[in-house]
Amino acid sequence: MTLLFLSFLLLLLLGTEVGFAMVIAAWFGIEFKADRFVDLVMLPTSMLSGVSFYALVQITLFILAGEIMNRGGITRRLIDFAGVWVGRGPGSLGQVSVGANVMMAGISGSAVADATAIGKAMIPEMRVKGYPVSYSGAVIAAGALIGPIIPPSIPMVVYAQMANTSVAKMFMSGLLPGLLLAGGFMAISALIGRARGFPAGPKVDWHTRLRVSASAVWALLLPIIILLGIRLGLMTDTEISSVAVVYALFVSMFVYRTLKIRELPALFASAGRSSAVILFLLAAAAPFSWLVAESQIADRVVDMIHTISTNPVMVLIIINILLLLVGLVLEPLPAMVIFLPALIPIGMELGIDPIHFGCVVVINLMIGLITPPVGLLLFVVSSIGKIPFIAVAREIMPFLIWSIVVLFLVVVFPPLALWLTLGM
After folding, report:
1. Measured between alpha carbons, how far is 240 from 245 in angstroms, rounded to an integer?
2. Burial letters for 14-24: b for 16+ Cβ neighbours within 10 Å, e otherwise?
3. For residue range 344-354, what is the model confidence (pLDDT) as tens digits?
4. Residue 27 to residue 29: CA distance in whole angstroms
5. What one-character DSSP code corresponds to residue 254?
6. Which of 56, 136, 203, 253 has the fewest CB atoms within 10 Å around its CB?
7. Which value, in Å, is the radius of gyration of the alpha carbons in the chain?
8. Tell me: the pLDDT tens digits for 70-112?
């Protein structure tokens, strides 16, 4: 087992992609397994079984829905809607960015997709209005963090699959924490805007508000349909993702008429590439996770934690500290597929509600997206806005602190994650 982890870390340090690093490390682990012989056919077989789940279709469909939204002009209408209703004080464009990300989060389920879509539209606009580009990048990255927390959420689909729990309940568990994050980010944007004298938003008359709102009605209906479908049990999880794709196509092609048939092949190819990255990662994690389970690491970690505390809240705090450290060097999905096989049994052993546990894990690992030195969202917005990474990392700190506060609140007050799942 030592060889498994050492080879994996060495491959990462050499710049190997995470998925390939896990496959090669698993090959070493199987080939040199000391206690008993394992046929190497276990490697491809377990990789296939790792993605042979019907529920994973949702990942591809939600990614496709996000691509259609971006190409079809739905994203622009959501930004315009947020612009006429959210904040008129100094720094209001920061609040608009957060508000637009909340609405995007209700559709795409991907932080990177949200940061790319909102960032391409808002960073140039904020630059023209006199906002420092480093702050613009930071507020876009913080807002995009909400994407995988508010339903639908690709990481929550992955967690539900690994923990054998309800995807719908996982989706609903993230809604209140996501809105709490958004409210704090908007307050931080307002405070920074006043302190630094950022320009205030223009006054908008009611005629303009109604006109923009009418144009955005079709775009706003999609997250509402998704939330109601999940909460009321009107559709299965996979049906909801399918409805999102069909609805986005219908609105883009026949209502807004901004998406042409000739654009569909490129759009499907782009969504396919994004999906393939995630699904290959899950496939690569299967033999790796099997070897981790075979080594009984989970039992050893449980015994170690028992020596520290058996209080579920204290155990969650310990796990959070571990995952926050992991988030400094690993992206969320690799961290999930590597560590969840060991952590999920710990939660079960201590009687922690699996939905609460999953919500805490997802929020924690999403915080890693805005945490230097890796902070994938920081790199994304730096690339989009041509902004120095260090400058964005410096500006992200108030948003990062609030994210950790919300994580602590969800750990200490489980109803924040569980209230909306009651009766489901």
Report:
1. 9
2. eebebbebbbb
3. 888 887 788 99
4. 5
5. I
6. 203
7. 22
8. 788 787 788 888 878 876 777 788 888 898 888 877 776 678 7
DSSP letter assigned to residue 109: -
Q: How far apart are CA 254 and CA 257, in angstroms?
A: 5
**How many Cα neighbours within 13 Å face the side chain of 340?**
27
302, 349 in Cβ contact below 8 A? yes
Model confidence pLDDT, tens digit, residues 264-307: 898 888 888 877 877 887 788 778 777 766 666 656 666 777 67
DSSP 90: B
Please return the burial class of 288, using the count of CB atoms within 10 Å of its CB with bins 0-12, 13-18 and 19+: buried
Nearest to 28 by CA among 48, 8, 14, 45: 8
Query: What is the spatial distance between Cα 169 and Cα 355, in angstroms, rounded to a whole number?
Result: 7
Report the SS3 class of residue 180: helix
CA–CA gap between residue 187 and residue 86 (Å, rounded): 12
What is the value of pTM for the model shown?
A: 0.81
Cis peptide before 177 (omega within 30 of 0): no
Dihedral angle of Cα 397, 399, 402, 403, to the nearest 10 degrees: -100
**List of residues 6+ apart from 362 with CB closer than 8 A:** 148, 149, 153, 155, 156, 159, 170, 174, 332
If we measure between CA atoms, which residue out of 21, 22, 1 comes closest to residue 11?
21
How many whole angstroms from its chain centre is CA 239? Answer: 21
| Mean pLDDT confidence for 393-412 | 94
